């Protein structure tokens, strides 16, 4: 919250300064402009641009990273829900690293007559048509989140069809980093299969998201 307040305060100061410059230019237009006055106005506008650039850049960097994290968390939550609803395993693949990555989900295939439901197999998330459940696309790709990098400790996880737990019971951690390396975000999936967003200890704070345990 403190970080957000500082950003808002900075933006208010920039807006106030901009309004002063606009008023100055209006007055100059009414009575004519000297070269000195024009140079002063241009200098102030240049200062405004320098002040605004870092704040707006950070805002968009964090927005892309947060968007990727929320999309991944939503995919994992929906995959778990589908596993319980369909009473069969759902596998989620998390493939790639750096700025080229994807994630996708697929449920276990229908069994042949009289046979047991087979285990779920991870889909090829690089193939746009391979990851779906019941005809609904289940895929997140890095192309939608420019310059956001990904690192994961698991390439595939499987949700149990009875309780929605992870079949391996091994926690999954997917770390996303934006173009500004000061900011990173983690999607954690515990043994119970619940996905949550948190901020790693090494990252600068992100408004509304708690620190990872």
From TrEMBL:
**Major location (coarse):** membrane
State any GO BP term from the record: protein secretion by the type II secretion system
Origin superkingdom: Bacteria
Record's InterPro entries?
Answer: N_methyl_site, Pilin-like, T2SS_GspH
Q: Where in the cell is it found?
A: Cell inner membrane
Q: Which UniProt keywords apply?
A: Cell inner membrane, Cell membrane, Membrane, Methylation, Transmembrane, Transmembrane helix
Q: Where are the transmembrane segments?
A: 38-56
What Gene3D superfamilies is this protein classified in? Glycoprotein, Type 4 Pilin
Mind telling me which GO cellular component terms the entry cites?
Answer: plasma membrane; type II protein secretion system complex
| Residue ranges of domain General secretion pathway GspH in the record | 69-193
Q: How does it sit in the membrane?
A: Single-pass membrane protein
Family (UniProt): Belongs to the GSP H family.
Question: Protein name, please?
Answer: Type II secretion system protein H
Q: Which organism is it from?
A: Ahniella affigens
């Amino acid at each position: 919250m403190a970080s957000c307040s500082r950003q808002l305060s900075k933006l208010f100061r920039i807006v106030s300064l901009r309004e002063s410059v606009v008023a100055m230019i209006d007055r100059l237009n009414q009575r004519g402009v000297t070269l000195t006055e024009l140079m002063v106005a241009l200098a102030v506008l240049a200062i405004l641009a320098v002040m605004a650039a870092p704040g707006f850049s950070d805002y968009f960097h964090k927005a892309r990273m947060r968007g990727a994290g929320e999309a991944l968390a939503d995919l994992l939550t929906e995959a778990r829900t589908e596993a319980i609803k369909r009473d069969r395993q759902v596998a989620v693949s998390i493939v790639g690293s750096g700025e080229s990555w994807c994630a996708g989900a697929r449920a276990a295939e229908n069994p042949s007559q009289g046979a047991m439901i087979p285990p779920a197999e991870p889909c090829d998330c690089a193939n746009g048509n391979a990851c779906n459940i019941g005809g609904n696309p289940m895929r997140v790709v890095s192309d939608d989140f420019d310059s956001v990098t990904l690192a994961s400790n698991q390439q595939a996880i499987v949700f149990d069809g009875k309780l929605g737990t992870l079949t391996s019971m091994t926690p999954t951690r997917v770390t996303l980093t934006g173009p500004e390396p000061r900011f990173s975000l983690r999607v954690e999936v515990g043994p119970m299969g619940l996905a949550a967003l948190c901020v790693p200890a090494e990252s600068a704070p992100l408004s509304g998201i708690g620190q990872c345990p």
